[in-house]
Fold each of these.
Amino acid sequence: MPIRSLPVELVTEICTHLGLPALHALRLTCRSLFITTADTCRRRAFRSICVLLTTDGLHRLSELSMQEGICEHVESLTVVPELFNGEYNAPYSTFSRWDCIQGALGRSQQEQDSEQVDGKAYYAVYEAAMADHQHALTSATSIILLQDCTRRFVNLSSVGLQYCPTAGTGDICLGWRSFRAPLGFYPDFERERFPHKQLAREHDLAFSLLAETLISSGRKVKRLSTCGPHCYGVGLGRMQLTPEAWASFLSYLKGLSHLHFCHESSAISSHPERLSESLAAVAPSLETRRYQIGPYSSSIYREPFRVRGLFQGIPFQRLQTVRLRLIELPMDTLEQFLRAVSPTLQILTLRAISLAEPDYPSDPLPQDMEETKHHWWRLLEFIRDELNLRFFVLRKVMFKKNPLGIVDGSFTWARHEHNPAVFHHRRTGLSFHEWMNQLRLN
């Protein structure tokens, strides 16, 4: 039986299991399917979109928000707050050494069969793109455009920042194509150095822009994030908000159920109290909490950042998921926090967590393996006896910044102390208590 003869409801159900490329290919097979699946395609394609923070990207977002049949399908909006990996105002001598520029110059030289290819044309396009981007970051017009868009997206439930366009996910990134077209090179910076200090300024500005947009639009969302899989933190104390705007933002945070917050603390903050104030505002309704101090890249590992307290006195009432990364803290502090959220906690991830005594210096100390094992066994026994988790991940644990290997015997393949220890009852077939007992520390 040809698919076009099936009931519309069944065709719609089939389409929900197809990836976007397969769905587009199916729609092009016949006219009736193209018409039948139009609403399904709009719902799938525009459910999650991102926008590059450029003049063109914002105007395209504004045009999209005015399209009936599309704007009501947008549920997630992410803003890309940086270009060129944070390499702003790079002199030509630096620009010409980028891997992507060297590759473009090499291709041009082959195509033109010439020994000398001038990169000044690429540099002129780079300067123009950066000028436009920096204008979009600081312009009041950007707030007005984003404000109008969020009001029109009536089903918007998730807003946040993202390091780069979601290549390969099928999500739409407005402004990306027009940004890339005149460059003459692909802005790929995976092998470049890690410029988190340059990125910090842009992320602070962009998050301030996003906060003012949400406050003025009145659009309530359930999810808010400072970054995507590549974590680049926001410094709340450096956000350019007036005291009145900050108070309004705290009021806005009430009701959030999911918060992915990467706190960038490499620079001096003029408002250190803002972190605890924001957590206190969101705590009663929060279900998922991702917390990290400092930026992180999968290819570049940073040392954990010392914290003295971990959300003490903040009344989390519905917290189900906690993910902590790149933090050094006393074990009693971590135990106190976990005990406070234990009635509702179901999912816990600890990555690059270093235990240390409160009075120890922050520099790595000579490692005593038995001492390291002793402290982590104490914590693991506490987690085993006090928590009843559905999902638990433990990776790159340390004591005084000295690493400790963990072997998860429930893995029947690739068993290695540098692999993460992962508990899920469907995978292991063990209870949480049984799984914790089979862990080994090396």
Amino acid sequence: MVIIILMTKRKIFMIKKDVPFN
């Protein structure tokens, strides 16, 4: 599923940047 990949990427990005991203 593409949605899961996008969510995982977004989660990693949030943790890396440490800023809320919608």
Amino acid sequence: MLNILILTFSVSMTTDYLYNLPEMKKYQILIVDDIPDNIKVLQSILSDDSYEISYALNGKDAIMLCVAKSFDLILLDIMMPEMDGYEVCEYFKSKEKTKDIPVIFLTARVDEESIIKGFEAGAQDYVTKPFNPQELVARVNTHLDLKSKNQKLKMMNLELEERVAARTMELVESNQSLEHANHQLSTLEDAKNDFLSLMSTELREPLNGIVGFAEMLEFSIKNKTNLKYVRYIIQACEKLTGVSDMALLLSALRFDRYEMKILGISVYEVVKDSIEKLKPLIAERKIKVKVEIPKNYIIRGDEKLFGISMEKVIENAVTNAPSRSEVLVGASLEGQSVKVFVQDLGVQFTPSEVNYTFHFFELNKEDRRQDFKRFTAGLVVVKLVMDLHKAIVDVENLSEGGVRVSFQLPVY
């Protein structure tokens, strides 16, 4: 017989507007802990009537319960007999039904190795014992909120894809004119772009809340280890915001929604600004970035787009370069053009990765799903930006090892 308790609690909703859940529904939460006293503590903290809480006293019972029931969040103790929390989490992340359920580890161990091991096992977050009630509720509600929005995003994407497929079939079957078909598809693309913009805004709101409270904690926390983890949260949120912004820019560039402003651009100043923005990553990777660009090189182009391109190429180089190695950013005059290049000692591009970067929107769906080591969405943006500037882009695997990415733009 399973050692499982299923209880439902009804208490007034929290008044803190930031952590109110967006829908009045029962969120299914599974608590896995082999110590009943810990369960009682969590019961008293998570006494909100928007939760329906189930309990399992060991990993095997938790797995069996997840087979029979669906959950929105799992609070998982690390130190348990037979199967520890890491093993249970890895199992959940390997199964289709449970791989998207956010897991928060419950742990008394705050050493960096244990925390990193938890994230590598697939956990989204952790809470330390003894539990801080406000922190626990905040983390639970944040991950429930994000999961809810992600589910909505998937459902809306699926619905939109079905609508596109259905509409396309109608157009084929009715043999309408090419002009009419293009107009209809363009309307659907606009809907996808508007939807992307809406979802970006929806995701930004909870992220801003997380960053705001994390920054408040940053100024009040004195423990160096905890301060480092708070900064990890801030960096992760900033990265998610950057991904959202990049998706919107990709859409704008892809469908000619971006209005270019052609000016004279100082290559040196743009490179310097890009390196400044990437300082945290450069410091984390312990990379030396060497700049060999004359200050009088002025090119013709859109300063914002050129800046984004430089930042993404340098970021790709710093990310893939071996720790404590050097990244070289340089430029040379080639007739009436300036050739700008970024060179690193990292893993080289395969021919497939080069093709993937330069012909992304010409590939079929299966080809786009390949897993590459050096490819990033940022490089697709760089290619689109250079196409708008009618610029030459080149990726070169160096004979001595490493990669050089270069692009050539006209002198102003």
Amino acid sequence: MFDWFDPGSARCGGRWANTVRCTTRFATARAGVLLAAFLQAGTAGAFTGSIRFPGHGTSLSSLAFAPTIPVPNNPAVGQVVQSVSHEVGLGTPQVLCRIAETVAVNGTLASGSDTLFATNVPGLGVRYSIKRQAKGQFRNAPYATVFFPPVSHAAEYHIMAELVVTGPLGSGTLTTIPSLTMTFAGRCFETVSGTQHITPGSRFAAGTCSVGTRAIQVALPPRVSPSNLMRSGATPFSIGLDCAAPVRAYLSLDDAANPGNRSTILSAAAGSTAKGVGMQIMSESRPLSFGPHDPESGNLNVSFVGKMRAGANLIPLSARYVRTGPVSGGTVKGLATFTMSYQ
């Protein structure tokens, strides 16, 4: 309640009341009104902007890995098995202050790492990373940073999740997967956060394959004249491969009669009587080179032969005669060993 003074009605001892005292009361009342109005206005306008996260839609959709994920052959620690990402957007309308971004992973760190987080599958971890520009570099979580809002008050916001080998790999279904929480705070907007989840249920299966036929007999034309040798055509055959999960298949060949052979021509094996004749094995009309018996020896002359689906597959190949010198009649035999690898 304010103490107002009316100079038209107050007298003291036949004269006006102390005008200094009355004026002081009046001024104090006015100052109180102005101060209250100022404080009220300041409270109403404390936040001038807002953060929209995600910038597209109302909530973060879950990321999802493939339903079946094959275990790679001889995986190395740090090897990325699969990655998924999406762009969710970040809106900053009327934000004129700096933005403090905190990115935290909700999970247990894998041993020996500060960016890989354990899943329920042995030897398999998750790594999250963020970038705010299409051409920018992904930054591994967790981290905290401060940045100024973009001039356009709208930015790209990319979230990526990777499955990474952290040790000896097991198999199983992904059920325990770390999540990612992003928080944005500043003095001119209310704090906003969002959590990125990954859909559970992906099956992590050992990507083993088995060869359907281990001994393959390829019958080339039995009678060919020397003049028609190169025109006798190619004889098709195939290697059967059964795989537990989709894989990329590789083939290596070694010449049983000449293990040091690194050319595309298979040497004549024991029992051959013809001269000047060799054979080639081809994939999609491309002659394959021979290599060491051990396909891991520097991966020399290992050929990619296609993507295999889960289940039965056929790898189409062919064989043909090739002239290696002056031809003389007789029989020709060849013996090659093939090794399949996959990842």
